[in-house]
Amino acid sequence: MPQVTSAGGLSAPDAGRPPEPLLADRKVEPDVPGEGVHEPGSKDVRETGGYALQAVVRTGEGPGPPKAAEVNASAIDSVRRKTEARMAIEAGSARARFVFSGGFVVPPGTELRARIDRYGHLLLWPGEATYRIAEAGSARALLGERRLDVAPQSLADVQASEETGRRLNMRTRRVDLSTRAAKAVFELATLREAGEGGTLVCRLLLELMSASPASSVCAVDEVPVHAELRWATGGTLTFDVTSIARRLEFPSGSLNVPPASLAFVTSPPPFSPADLLVSRAELAAFRTAPVDVPTPASRDAQPPPPDSGLLLINASDELRVVWLDGVEVAWIAPGNRLALPMLLRGRYALQWRTFLGDGLDAPDTVIVPGTSEVEAGR
Which domain range does residue 342 map to? Predict the structure, then answer.
């Protein structure tokens, strides 16, 4: 039976030495899977195998499109599925790899890698033969704003529940936990010989709610298959594993933390002012034909509307995501703008949000050609 810690969580009796925090200015020696992580010179014969998980991250539905004959519902639904934020997870007995794609604000192919004996992650940026240190507490800023700022963390209040459920045809147990940032429910499934790979998945989810990675939630051989985070500021984020596959062996080097071929850098991730998450053709297909609608009067100090399309302006102090007709279509860094000239004339439903869903502006109906701006302080 797992032991209850002072933080109210669960801890394996043979947890070994405390993990070492990764530091942003300190490189990590090349890793060799198959070598144990708890004691120098020990071996872990299962490290080359484990489980491959596919998961999605959702922050609720955006406002749906107006009811009109020109609305192309099938095209909108197709793009909505494409832009779903997806995570491919490889979890060994003591190491894990997270690969992001779809509607994340980090570029597709961005990776985080982790070891059970270290707090924090290694960040592998696509297109670079490098790695950076994402210190414990930085995952929230990375996934929300493409930054590596370290947020204050505290031990989560963890309460194991007697309530059980089923996910992916497996029995799960429920854990309730809370921090100042959020209240959450984790559902954990037991996977044979999963080791502590599931703990690394738990740590990533804990970081999103500003909880210390020392907040023990997963026991050995447990993996989170569902988590719902309810933000103190309003809004929710859900994590759902959609498939699990046993892997007797992972590709060579896929779990190295870090691989020997990568160079260590201390520079921040590359800056980008904005990005469109869908193609121009896909966005144009949201309507089957243009429709002339009255142009609203411009407010004082508001820039004149563009001749075509939609101009998006982020005057706030945080990265914002734009949802259009219920689809996450773009993100814009603070103080930047993005033009969508391909949108056909007509009415659209728009909402400005943070990626993590902890900041939601009220939905709005915008007229194209036109401008939508999120203001400072919102």
Answer: 274-374
